[in-house]
Amino acid sequence: MAIARLQVAQDWRKQGMEGVLVSSVHDSIVADVPDKEVKKACVLMLNSFEKVPQVFEKAFGIPYDLPFKGEAQWGPNMKDMEDFKE
Predict the structure, then answer these.
(1) DSSP letters along 30-59, please?
(2) Is residue 40 pLDDT above 90, yes or no?
């Protein structure tokens, strides 16, 4: 999860996102983004998660042959979340 957080933060900066990464809780990364960036933020996070095996192998020299998939949810607060579907 630590590698995923770092990858999301790196991709976030590269894309010039207006929103902010707020925290990570267990296996979740929480962001606060303006409405106009919700879809972009969800796609960015999902793509960042899929990069984790390559980042792991590059950093440690050990192949990581398992898929690393993520799920994205969005909403006005943590209680009223909806699954993101592209």
Answers:
(1) EEE--GGGHHHHHHHHHHHHHHHHHHHHHH
(2) yes
